[in-house]
Fold these 3 entries.
Entry 1:
Amino acid sequence: MEKNYVVLAKQVPDTKKITGKAMKDDGTVNRAALPAIFNPDDLCALEMALRLKDQYGGTVTVVTMGPPSATEILRQSLYRGADRCILLTDRKFAGSDTLATSMVLSYALKKIKNISIILCGRQAIDGDTAQVGPQVAEKLGVAQISYVQEILNIKKNTVKIKRIIENGYAVQEAPMPILMTCCSTSDAYARPCSAKNIQRYKKVASYSETVQKYMADGTPKEEAFKAAKNYIESLPKERSPIEEWDISTIELDEALCGLGGSPTWVKQIESVVLTAVDHKHIPATNEGISSLVLELIDDHILD
Amino acid sequence: MTTTSTKPEVWVFIQHEDNTINETSLELLGRAKELAVKRNGISATVILGDNIRKIISEISSYGPDKVYFVRDKRLEQYQTTAYTRALNDLVSLYKPEIFLFGATILGRDLAPRVASSLRVGLTADCTDLQIGDHTARGEEFKNLLYQIRPAFGGNIIATIINPKTRPQMATVREGVMPMPAKNGKTSSEVIEFQPELTDTDFIIKTIKKELTEKTVNLKGSNIIVSGGAGVGSKENFDLIKELAHTLGGEIGASRAAVDFGYIHHDHQVGQTGTTVRPKLYIACGISGAIQHLAGMQESGKIIAINKDPDAPIFKVANYGIVGDINEVVPKMIKAYRQRGVL
């Protein structure tokens, strides 16, 4: 039977770009200055799925939950070689914590038949929780392997992987279906977008994203709905592999997602503001540095 | 609230391997005891395995009120699904108020699965835990666990609460809580629990393990010399290593330096690496992303070397040197080597 690999991906603000330049004068982050990117670990998961497809055949489906604009990472997945994409978007999903997010994702995955391996990033760089993967696996009742660095092979119904453990690595084997969370030490691990696929898929969009684009151009709401519907219908079917699902598609009880389905509440958020300490300015000269070294020796900080 | 337990219990999952307890578990036990006192409750540890009397007696010497010993020969080796089932059943029976895990690789694999099976909230990678109240929409919640963690690349600190579900679960970062002292008493009450497990809970087979000896000791070093993106190349990073060796210190790095492949992740200081408190921290070519600063700003003295005079790293530094590390670092090495003659 053909293998089906499903990748769970997230669009995130590029928190690595937070440098002095992305800070406001009051010391808080200027989020608008941060580009939205494909979460790095998820890109690694996608690459692993694509390599499995290259080697063993099968299909790669990418699922993301997020606002309509998250469609961008689905297009990027198509450019890299994914076969099918699903955008999970609904206002009722907003405010979901990891438990509620894993609920939404697990209900969506139940609608996808015959999954062999679910691959997700180990963690997303905006929250760094690493919780959603294991929580999806638990809800689906499948086993999980986290911190996977390499998929070694698939033989019959068994997948063999190399993963990080405390103080080292382990090689493990598990029967499918299984969920794995993937991480890579190199951002360059993922293949680039192919020019051919960009040509093929650049016009592909999700309905909600298209509505937003029309509305951003000043089109009134009702007209934007109509225009978006027409646009999506005008796309040739074989070239529009992005589906959009909402809460009714996945048949999830509203009480189990969003803020209401989230046991964790945010009590307080504080921006980290650096309070400057007075520092001694040391000139970058031989004399300046020598006297600093001697001062540290005098203070018994250096031996 | 359950009627079977009279006092709220604060639990810590004890991670162990080859008869050694993971340090983070001990750090957590220290805080769990403090939280238990504040809640007028009791502290407890949870240990899974079979032939682990030595571990149990060692953990008892740190003075938890109770030790839950979840016993099954098959639990000697970690297995996510089996551990989840065992902990789920133990929690359902004894109903702790708080359940803490180290944010280790194992803890980050296990805790979310347990929280999901219990349908309770879990906060990842906390750096602090407190007890406090909360009022929302006219409802008052007393004595909640404040789960305090950095987020958004360390630029915000969030306080998370789980007002309505129990246990309140959190994973806590390695090295952020001080190691407790042994108190010598070994009178913890040991409660043995036999979980009901099936073969389907053990489907993942470990074929081999390669343990790399941990040669980097950031937590235990008095002096750390760290390099960042400003170092510029893997070759230039040798300068950082040389300064560290000259001063008798350990080599550190920012996330950017690790991402660029200048050095192995084991050297990473910061929120996604190791939290350090050396006597002296020398930051070379590190601009000072908050996630890095969060992991080193409690150092005794900080020297920052950076070309950019506006780099945020200077805000936490005691000594600032504006300059190119390729010039400043060799001068520093030379100055230290000649210290006797100057």
Entry 2:
Amino acid sequence: MVTEFTPYSALLGGALIGLAAAAMMMLAGRIAGISGITARLLPPAEREGFPERLAFIIGLIMAPLLWIVVTGYPVVQSVSTNLLLMIGAGLLVGFGSVYGSGCTSGHGVCGLARLSPRSLVSVLVFMGAAAVTVFLMRHVIGS
Amino acid sequence: MRTAIHFAIGLIFGLGLVVSGMIDPAKVQNFLDIFGTWDPSLAFVMAGAVAVTFAGYRLAWRNEKPVLEDRFHIPESTAIDRRLVLGAAIFGIGWGLGGYCPGPALTALGLLAPGTIVFVPAMLVGMWLARMTASAAQPTPVSSKS
């Protein structure tokens, strides 16, 4: 399905993500990596910083709801209804991001902003793997 | 106070995912689909996010320490090893299949799409398994980077 190219809202939204990542460093001295923040809430949970990490995740979850209430605009989404596929995807995303010490936020945004070679390798590998997966799914298997 | 600040940072991050469109798996998959219905928007999301973070980090590091903590917690590992590459490859395959990485999936939870409702618990199980694998393989806990 086609989605509209939206460079301005993409830049603005990206800047907001950057603002949050910068604030996390300036105030808490930490990387805003979603997979690490989430994984360390799971058992055996790290007690230190637990309420802060939980508050961050609750903030994430509240964001689209606040957006809808304040602006009156809907949040447009098209999520696959193939639930088995989504369960498999979720397992891979969760396992891979924690095993590889980061996802789009930790390696992608924060790691690249730190000019970390390790993060650059991670980003190239996950972008490449994701592009190949979408190519196979849409153009070879043709789902 | 500290908790409220982290809540606010999460809220701003989540609004960024909403405004940028990254919360929509179809948009993410179209970014990855260079030979199909390509939508380059996500390149602009990344560019905006990395540019602001880059500047913000330099500003933050001018201070001796962060405002709320005693010191900066910067990931120390520089190893480009099998774990890093294998983890990124597995993550990438899942990202391509579902169009969700961890941030947008969690942020979209309240929108209650059935695909999201099954994706997030599966993701948490995957994360837990990786933590178990990690702590079994080496004594150090999961690095603070993610």
Entry 3:
Amino acid sequence: MRKPPHSSNWPSAAPTLIATPTAPARVEFLAAADNYVMSGLGCYAQPALMFDGTSSGLSLRRVALIVPPYSERMRAWVTRGGGVVNALSPMGQNDTTISAESSGSGSLPVAAAEVVTTPAGISGSSAYLGTAAPWASVITRTGDEDDASPSATKDRLLEMAGALTPTVELVEIGAAQGFGLSVVRQSQDLETL
Amino acid sequence: MTITTPSAPVVVSEADLFLPAADADPLQTILENANHAWAHYTPPLLVAVYTVESGIARNAVFQVPIVPSADGLTYRFEHHALTGTGSGNLGVTVEEYDSGWNSIHTTTTITAAASSWVEYRHTATISATSTKLRITYSRAASDPYTPHSVTVYPEPGAASTGTQSSGFEAFDGGLLSATGAPITTEHVNRPVKNMHALMRDRRQCVAAFVQEDASTPGNVLHDVGNASHASAADVRVLYGRAVATLPWQAKTELSVYCIATHDHTSASDVVRFGQADGAEVTFDADGTVETAALTVQCDRPGAIDAGAELVLQGSIPAASKTTYIHAVVAYWRPGD
């Protein structure tokens, strides 16, 4: 019998605590306590990171992010911006690149083929959000193709270690002005982790 | 009598829950899993990718509001920087502010080869009453470098005896492991109380925009209103836009903190932080830590990737004036 992770909101109030000293030994008490602890262990938000990844010397940014337990696949939200140009001859921008070690080992770079590459989603000269005039910005989400062994860089899911404990993931982000991760797939059997 | 703090939670199978309702285990495992949470439930107190001039040869100083644990925990810091020419050592100093600035970590001996990424990891204890961190980077011989990011998360080590300020009270295995030891309601309630205490105590950073600090406002990479980014009074200029993930949430509340300054006699409500197409909060640019509560309605409500697009904007109160946004940080805790 597999044991899946908790898949609904961590309750804001604890389960009803046992108030009587003569309560019977009931399996429901144990199950509720176990569920409460295990669901809490996996409850992590992912921050909205706002930064200049456009100005000179800042096109590649590195940061350590906490990946919650049980996480197998993640997607990223990427913010891009630029100065608006003549739509008849738009200036192309480089794609956003994301290098994630996927193991919590603390080592980068990953192999070239493992870099996740997301189309820029915007044209025009690259500029930091509202600092150019006129300007535009867009948020795109990285791809949902599940390919853990890509032969070439592509837009795909970020694969994670899927462990019982959180991992610290070193991430390198190229050509972005905002970044956030979200878990999209957890391990479905905690007993196998 | 031993307090056990497992390095990983022990998964209690559903089958294990049924038969031994009156036995020590799996209750003891559940209690020790809550002890595990004390040491390994590590939502970040701060994750910030600095918006900073690249290749600087001066000190870079960042001042960031924080809401640390009530338990005065040890935290792990992970700094990343990229060096330019030269081989001068990097330096990092971290200070906390409660009634004044106190140094909690300092070094000037981080080896830094030319044109290389440098990761520097250390621990430091942040007192429960701290309201700000001040992080200073430097490089010897005026060699150029770019500070990139800092990540701060709890690393308190094994659970210790006694009731913590958060309400967490570590489970001592001796209470159940003795032959014939009774199972009391306290044993069954304890893991629930402990997990609740941790979840409510350890706030999670869900948004951050950080530029250099208020001591030299002109060092910020992007200000509002100078010649290169000119805007008229009260025109909103976009300074940050990104998506935060708030798993399983539909509607929740964030605590938002801001430090901003200005060169004007009055600069009220010149920093705005909010949800795209949703509620927003405003802050003055007076150099102090300002705070406000922001309610967000999540996209994809109730899903594992539920979240909200958050937006940071700045403005100036009058033409030819300047607003400097130094740090805006948002925190969340489950249950809010």
